[in-house]
Amino acid sequence: MAGAAPPGPFRPGFWRSPIRGPWLTAVLGLALLFGVTVLFVTGLLSYAAYNPGLGALNDKTPGKGLLGFYLFTWPTHPYWLYRLTQGVHVTLGVVIVPVLLAKLWSVVPKLFTWPPARSPAHALERLSLILLVGGVLFELATGVLNIQLDYIFPGSFYTLHFYGAWVFMAAFAAHVVLRLGRMWRAVRSRSLRSVLGTDTAHTEPEPADPYGLVAAAPAPATVSRRGALGLVGAGSLALLVMTAGQSIGGSLRRTALLAPHNRDPAPGPNGFQINKSAGAVGIRASDIGPAWRLQIRGTRQLSFTRAQLLAMDQHTAHLPIACVEGWSTDDQGWSGLRLRDLAALAGEPHATSVLVESVQRRGAFRRVLLAGNQIHDPLSLLALHVNGAPLSTDHGYPARVIVPANPGVNNTKWVRSLTFRT
């Protein structure tokens, strides 16, 4: 018959699960509403932490325009701030995957509506769903690949993830505005207590709904709604256990099976996580050997050997390293020279920024700018030792920057020069 739905998933009778319906979809949607909002806010904070307002070196999305309206100078206190915000962002992004998949399962019949577009308004609604579903899958895929250092996508992760987040959130916000009332009525249509008290044998379909979520010809239940929620919760809990330890640290670090950054590093003062080794970024022995000099520039230009730096007053700071991939170290005992003292030596005691350059030859963060508040914080150091021992090669020997609450990649290793500016 002309206009009849093709066979398969486009036929109303194809989808027969009796637990699909407005209530289950709304409960999962409510969880996503909270989770996605937290992910978006922590993602914006992650971008702000790089201080993109300082210049092109720090700004990976120079064409953002009004999308950078909220940016501010990233604070240095509390010193664990970036460890918290990025740990929450990455951990929650992984933990939310089972909820997202369950939500997509609950509404999958709507993706096969026939005819695909009944009117211009219906076509626009369908297009918004493509942006919504495609956007969240894109964000999760790029995020998970970044955690695992699998950069198989074209272009910069920062650019793709940033713009992808705004596209998805625009579609998500529109979806929430249009569906919030419906979702709230569906959640209140039955009590959670009654759902949790109903086993599979007594699970019945919801009343027919005008939105096409309830099966037209439901099959007998093979799982209850509480079983489905329990399965989703167990999946999220398992992912939490296998992810959160990389940010929390301590004994939980051993459970972080999804963390790729040497969960069990070698013992000793330098026995903690790294992002990239010296060999991975092309550091040669001659780059950091006896000929190495630290160049300090401002109104005065100075050059120091490592021995000369060690002869100056040394200061100590206990700080973690926290990276965009969500992993972080426990607090480490760094010692070296305060950046504000080096600024004074360069004749720039009131410096508002410093250009930090590394001897590494490749990598997006071999040059970075630090803000004035980062320079003048007493815990900001050009570190020469960690935990009482000289820095190892992989941890930045002969000198590295360590700044409280700073993203790990901006704590430049193998530093060759500091250029202070006012």
Structure characterization notes:
The protein has 422 residues and is α+β, with helices and mostly antiparallel strands. The chain has helices spanning 22-48, 81-95, 97-111, 120-147, 157-187, 192-196, 225-243, 245-248, 306-310, 339-345, 372-376; strands at residues 294-297, 301-304, 315-319, 332-338, 353-358, 367-371, 381-386, 389-390, 400-402, 415-421. The model has no long low-confidence stretch (mean pLDDT 92).
Question: How far is the first residue's CA from the last residue's CA?
Answer: 77 Å
Shape from CA axes? elongated
Order of helices and strands: HHHHHHHHEEHEEHEEHEEEE
Structural class: alpha+beta
Number of helices: 11
Largest sheet: 5 strands, mixed
Oligomer: single chain
Helix and strand topology:
Layout: H1 22-48, H2 81-95, H3 97-111, H4 120-147, H5 157-187, H6 192-196, H7 225-243, H8 245-248, E1 294-297, E2 301-304, H9 306-310, E3 315-319, E4 332-338, H10 339-345, E5 353-358, E6 367-371, H11 372-376, E7 381-386, E8 389-390, E9 400-402, E10 415-421
Parallel strand pairs: 1-10
Antiparallel strand pairs: 1-2, 3-4, 4-7, 5-6, 5-10, 7-8, 7-9
Helix pairs in contact: 1-2, 1-3, 1-5, 2-7, 3-7, 4-5
